Amino acid sequence: MNLRTFALASALIMLATIPAAVSASSQTADPPAAATPAERPGAVMADRHYKFEPVVDGTQVTHDFKVKNDGRAMLDIHQVKTG
């Protein structure tokens, strides 16, 4: 597997796991027992997918994903896995 294919595969795996990791961490956070849905954290991602353009072998590719907390409680992201 060449480096370009590996980088693309890694990026796709990363993209697939970020929403799950954000969702899982927001579900495992312990909001106060009396917290209403409006008082809980709420992870929102404007861009959940990113398609890398073709690059020369050996070129490092990166992309930043922005996560916004639309809730009132603190959003704790405990783990993000990449491919």
Mean pLDDT: 74
Distance between the termini: 15 Å
Radius of gyration: 16 Å
Oligomer: single chain
Label the structural class. mainly alpha
**Proportion of beta-strand residues:** 5-15%
Q: Strand-and-helix sequence, N→C? A: HEE
* Total domain count: 1
Helix proportion: 25-40%
Number of helices: 1
Q: What global shape is seen?
A: elongated
Total beta strand runs: 2
Low-confidence stretches: none
Strands side by side in the biggest sheet? 1-2
Structure, explained:
There is one protein chain. The protein has one helix spanning 3-28; strands spanning 43-45, 67-69. By secondary structure, the chain is mainly α. It has one domain (3-69). The protein starts with a helix and ends in a 14-residue tail after the last strand.
What's a quick, concise take on this entry?
This is DUF1573 domain-containing protein. With 83 residues, the chain is mainly alpha-helical. It has one helix spanning 3-28, and strands spanning 43-45, 67-69.
